Structure formats: C-alpha cells, structure tokens
Amino acid sequence: MAFVEQRHLEGLLKKTFGEEFVYKGDFKYEDSKRDMVLLLGKEHFFEIDGEEEIEYLEELPNPKSYLTLDSAEEIPGQNEKFVIHVGARPAIHLEGEELDVVEAVVVLNSLIRDAWQKACESAFILGREVYQFHAIVRKVNRRKKTQDRILVVSNQWIYNMEMFGEEGPQEEFKWSLPIGSLLRVAAGKDDSKLGEFPATIHFDLVVAKQLLAQNAYKDRKLGTKGSSVNDKHQLLFISQYARDRCTMALVALYYSQSKKRLAFTRGNEATGIRRSQLGVIKKEGTLEKYTRGIVGNMVGKHPRFVQIKSTGYIAWGKEKGKLKFDESIVGVRDEGAALEQFKLSDEEKAQFFCVLTSGKSLYFLCPSVQEKKDWVACINSIVETASYK
Fold first, then answer.
1. pTM of the full predicted structure?
2. Is residue 153 within 8 Å of 249, Cβ to Cβ?
3. Range with the lowest mean pLDDT among 160-169, 239-248, 344-353?
4. DSSP string covering 75-141
5. Is the confidence at residue 170, as pLDDT, over 90?
6. Which of 324, 384, 373, 380 is nearest to 355 (CA)?
7. pLDDT at 282 over 50
8. How far is residue 236's CA from residue 194's CA, in Å, rounded to a whole number?
C-alpha cells in the first residue's frame, strides 16, 4: 500500500508541478493527534490530510515553499517528536516513529538549505561568496520592540533582510557587514516559556569601513538607503538550536578568516547575585554620561558614578551606593555610532569615549584627557584578560 501511495504521489507531483519527488512520511499533529502525510518535493512541501485515500487523491493541496522555513528540529529528550519552524506563521509540531522523525528532519533540512542557497546566490550572494546558513529572527530595536527579520550569512558577509514570501529574497537588504568586522557574540539568557532565545552580535564599524576600502569590496554598501548601521544588534531566535547554530557558525567563520578567536559569552540562569557585585573594583569615579533620544536629535547628559569590575562588568548609578545598572563589557572606543549626534567640541571629543557592552553602547565624558586615557586603558586591560580566558 505504501509503495502504491508513493507512486501515486510521485505522479501527481510531476503532473501538477513538474517537480521531482523526494520524500513521504506518515505523522500526526502533536496537538490534535490528527493523521497527516508530509510530502517533500524538490522545490515545495505539502501537508496532506491523513484521512484522504492517498491512492485515490486527485489533486495535491497548495504547495508551500522551503523559503518560508527556518529549519526542522527534533525535540530534545522526545525522540518521537519534531517541529518545523515557519517564519510567517506558527511552527508545525509533528510526531511519529523515531526513525521516521530522524529521516524527515535530515531530509527537510537538506531541502531547506538547498532552496535558500539557490535563492540567495541568485539574488545577492555573488562571485566567490558561498551561502552558509540563514535564520528567521526578531530584531529588538532601541524602543525594545521587535521586528521580523531574516539573517543570512555567507562565508564572507552577514546580511540583515526584511521578511519575504515565497517569491524569495531580493537584491536589497537592510544592512550587510563583513565577517572580519565581528567583535563579539553574546548568547543571552533563554526564556523557553516565551520562546525567546537571544543573542547580541557586536561589530567593529571602524574595521568594517577598512575592509570596505579594499578593492574587492569597493562597490559594497553597508546598508540600503535610509537604513542606519549600528555596531550592536540584538536578536531573538526561534529556538536554542537555531541560536546556537548561528553563534557557533559565526565563531568558526571568524576564525577561518582571521585565525583569531572571536570573543563569545553565554548567559546563565539567574542566581540571585548580580555579576557586577562580584570581583574587584578596578576603577571608579564620576563621569558625565551622555544619552541619545530615540526620536529626533534629542541629547541628554548627567553625572553618574561608574565602576569597572575585574569580572568584566561596568556598573553605574546616581551615587556610589546606588548602582542600579550594569552590563557586560565588550570593548571600548574613542567614538561611537552617536558621536556626531552629540555635537561635541574638539576639546570634548578628546575627553570622550564609548563603552560597548552586551546590551548597549555607553557614552562618557571625562574631566580631562588624562582621565579618559586612564579609563580606556583600564577597560582595555579587562577586555583583553576576559578574551584570553
């Protein structure tokens, strides 16, 4: 019977869509326990009602493109269940025989990768660039609101794109940055109940501009017209597997290009003790902290007491005993993405520095040039020690 059903589906697929048959599997929807048939063609996949008499089926349901999928994933610890992550709608949760689940996940991920590689290398990944992977994510903007995005990574570049449908990716993208400009990758604390698996990707925009100045990239642009390029991007992945696949791949790609280890940190479950409370105070004092407004060119500044800890954390607040905020330090720069917005004098620029953290960029003005040099030297020492470990 199974052989008869497969031959019939092969014929329908070829006749209706001119498409090659790849795989057929019998499963149940996890929530309703309703039978279904998963049919995988070379270009599309189909969900067929399990109550249908397959050998008498006259037409297939609407085809669905692999370009709408992120990945397929087995459920950890539940060998008879798997999930198909869909970008624009809820995930498809299925269950079946253990061997069938393993086979379906392997075949489906291979087809997803083939479809995305073909589409991306036809649209914007050109020349010697080679597609590596993609991830359907939610980008957290400065207002803490999320936006649906697609992250595409080649062996040379990282692309941020708006969501697209079955028509596939276009030549335009929100921004692109070279792998060699990566500064640090930080995996945040997971929230399985909300389905949020965060990671923050940090870039060195100075290095990015240097790479763009090379002849090989002279026609490259960092982003599309009207899109700003920041040095830090906070992303929410659809699963721990998707997040770890991305972060580990970035670490590997960075090493293959630079032969250097990319700084990587992973968030832990809360212990009741803040990391900023641990370690030794390496430097502290009062600095002028600058903030930039979300709307327009509003700029604020106010004195804040700042501490640098040996654990690689920076903490700040209104007073020494009231340090309400802390972040993990990623790096330090003489300038930042918002420097022009602050409209500093030449004297102030010489006393100004930016601390890159796992969550934001912090801008400070020191009372003197020497003080600025002392703060920057201290932070660089902390970062170098953390990277070595």
1. 0.69
2. yes
3. 160-169
4. ETTEEEEEEEEESSS--EEEE--HHHHHHHHHHHHHHHHHHHHHHHHHHT--TT--EEEEEEEEEE-
5. no
6. 380
7. yes
8. 11
Q: Which helix (H) or strand (E) holds 205?
A: helix 205-212
Q: Is the dihedral of CA 232, 262, 177, 268 positive or negative?
A: negative
Please tell me the predicted confidence (pLDDT) of residue 337: 55
φ, ψ (nearest 5 deg) of residue 53: -80, 100
Distance CA 349, CA 97 (A): 65
Report the alpha-carbon distance of residue 359 to residue 352 in Å, rounded.
20
CA atoms within 13 A on the CB side of 253: 25
| Mean pLDDT, residues 150-168 taken together | 84
Q: Using an 8 Å Cβ cutoff, are 313 and 275 in contact?
A: yes
Nearest to 182 by CA among 262, 63, 70, 271: 262
pLDDT of residue 253: 93
Measuring CA to CA, how many Å separate 366 from each of 83, 300, 337, 338?
A: 52, 16, 18, 17
Q: What distance, in Å, lies between the first and last C-alpha atoms of the chain?
A: 60
Query: What residue has token string 């791949």?
Result: 249
The CB density around residue 337, as the number of other CB atoms within 10 Å, is: 18
